[in-house]
# Entry
Amino acid sequence: MSIEQYKPDYTVEAVYDIAVEDLKKLGIEAVLVDLDNTLIAWNNPDGTPEMKDWLYQVQDAGIQIMVVSNNTKRRVTRAVERFGIGFVYWALKPFAFGINRALAKLKVDRSKVVMVGDQLMTDIRAAHRAGIRSILVKPLVQHDSINTKFNRARERQVLKKLEAKYGPMKFHKGL
# Structure
């Protein structure tokens, strides 16, 4: 296992701290975003006003946005359908299948796409496998669903290795 496969390109406090201007400067035309604990808290399927504002800002800037989630169709649909956002469910992250399905729908060159997620083991690893840039954000809430607890334990080990090689991970208020 190469530890670089888990190293995010950028680290940002929260998805809402990613400014449209910064995405444009990087040439980003499409944002793929994880759902649970990235876009919405896993225990709040309706999201927040801050989330809605960020989604509209990205869309208004002409940047495509698509949710790529390992969750069920029902859960993802409930969270994003009212925003007119496309999504891929059962994405099978850390594999690239879901990201590749999203890219096929969006028809955007990989060099102009970024994946935003809260987990090194799934979101960042899948982005590397798909050949796109990645942004790691802090989880919106500190407690996870049962399904995520196993990944978090493994993630702590990977984070120690990343920090031993690259230094402490610093989260910023923007890119």
About this structure: The chain has one domain: 3-166. The helical segments are 20-25, 49-60, 73-80, 97-106, 120-130, 146-166.
